Description:
By secondary structure, the chain is α+β, with helices and mostly antiparallel strands. Helices cover 37% and strands 20% of the residues. The protein has two domains: 6-156, Jelly Rolls, CATH 2.60.120; 160-260, Homeodomain-like (Arc Repressor Mutant, subunit A). The protein contains nine helices and eleven strands. The strands form three sheets. It has a five-stranded antiparallel beta sheet with strand order 2-9-4-7-10, covered by helices on one side. A hairpin with a 3-residue loop joins strand 5 and strand 6. Helix 1 runs antiparallel to helix 2 and helix 4 (182-189) packs across helix 5. The protein starts with 9 loop residues before the first strand and ends with a helix. Residues 166-263 form the HTH araC/xylS-type domain.
Amino acid sequence: MSPNRQSATLHRSLPELPSLPRPLYGRTESLTNRALTFRHTHPWVQLSYAIAGVLEVQTAGARFVAPPQRAVWVPAGVEHQVFSSPRTEMRSLYIDGSAVPWGPDACRVLAVSPLLRELIRGFSALPAEYDEQGAPGRLAAVLLDELRAAPDVALMLPLPQDARLREVCQGLEDATLRQLGLGEWGERLGVSEKTLSRLFLRETGLSFRVWRQRQRLLDALTPLEQGERVTDVALACGYDSLSAFIAAFRRQFGATPGEFFRE
Length: 263
């Protein structure tokens, strides 16, 4: 999934939720097609998680990608869109800010341990107005404890604001332009390679080479999660060899594609 694919998506409306029935509220949703919500905000924290499929949360400044081993933390008031791969099984948690005073104030991708996954699944099956003083309330408390302990992981791609860099980033989603180097992009845009390189580092904190590699690897998560052959995914993402793709994937995610999706 990429930030330049609205034409391939369907708009879906957001559920009416004027207030939270409990400080921690879970919502279950099956998405049979790739979906896109309009840019919106919530007055509460949202944890976007998918037990199947790949979710992406996009803000004005970054993409946050979450396969089933990850979830995206969205603070209250942050404008965002949510994308998903086909047949996604989504479990959203909406959390009153007073219940998570320790929560980060910016979007994060969090690792979801097997225990946290099962807690989210179990909690999502509870009625909206569960008994806060009984076992459901204790389950909610344990879930929040595990969520607090969940580590951040690097599944974020910063998006530049400069119009020239935006054009480069969008062009990298085109298979016919994917292999262009920064010098070639400079010629197209009438800007020196040195200037583009300096702008990339200033606006994203990453070099062009590192940014492009991370983009390719994040885009590979959806087809890999859906069972496509690793070789086909590697070639589609612009890698010349399977071994180069697997080595890059291992450096980024700490595991080979096969190991990562067996977790």
